[in-house]
Write a structure and sequence with these properties.
single chain; 74 residues; alpha+beta; Alpha-Beta Plaits; three-stranded antiparallel beta sheet; 2 helices; 3 strands; 26% helix; Inositol monophosphatase family protein; DUF4170
Length: 74
């Protein structure tokens, strides 16, 4: 069995297409949390393609496993 590497897919409307600053963080579309990158990529691709005509909407994949595995300060 392979190691679980959690990934989060979410998106929303950007203030500007040149940044990743969202207009309203309360209105973010949380697509889901996935057990591996391949499944997260499929979900991201579906959302990105569905919003391709909306220049101010962007979806991203966050590697949650990297945040969870990061060393903690004492």
């Amino acid at each position: 069995m392979s190691k679980q590497l959690l990934h989060l897919v979410f998106g929303g409307e950007l203030k500007s297409p040149e940044t990743l600053e969202f207009v309203d963080t309360k209105a973010l579309d949380i697509v889901g949390i996935y057990p591996n990158y391949d499944e997260a990529l499929k979900a991201w691709r579906a959302k990105a393609q569905a919003t391709v005509d909306q220049a101010h909407v962007r979806y991203v994949v966050v590697h949650l496993h990297r945040l969870l595995d990061a060393p903690r300060e004492s």
